[in-house]
Amino acid sequence: MNARKVRVPPLEESAWTDETREVLSVRSARGRVLNIFATLARHPKLLKRWLVFASHVLGKSTLAPRARELLILRTGYRCKSEYEWGQHAIIARQVGLSDEDLRRIVLGPQAPGWDPFEASLLRAADELHEEQTLGDETWDALSKQYSVEQMIDVVFTVGQYTLVSMALNTLGVPRDEGVDGFPL
Prior knowledge:
Blueprint: H1 18-25, E1 28-29, E2 32-33, H2 35-40, H3 44-60, H4 65-78, H5 82-94, H6 99-107, H7 116-131, H8 136-143, H9 148-171
Antiparallel strand pairs: 1-2
């Protein structure tokens, strides 16, 4: 159950314009449009432009899917966005994260079982959330394995999902049917 009040309800399909229908036609999941997209359809020009950036972060980033989902889930958790968590828990399982991994993401980088690099990714999400920058130790740990493009994608992934989490929480976007919230 969502604890947040719905402030901006998803736009009903009967109110979609041709432009909205075109933008949302490629954004359906399991045969229906997710509430995030139907809600942002109330501002179609923003939705159309934001989708370009969001598509890069989710599908064209230089980060491996597992690393990307570690960053997204930790960011969604730290931003208290159950919607974001629930949607990306589904994606994370599809790219190989286990339910145990999901529980450990909630516990953070200090949880037992993370390899040092994945702990550094979670620490990066925490530092960007708390300080809006990466500390030297985390930068150094990640940059030993990551190119400059990948380091930039780390920052933009956390930034994108911080923005999305703020929008979801503020607008009160309801979780989609059958999508769980936080694991604990």
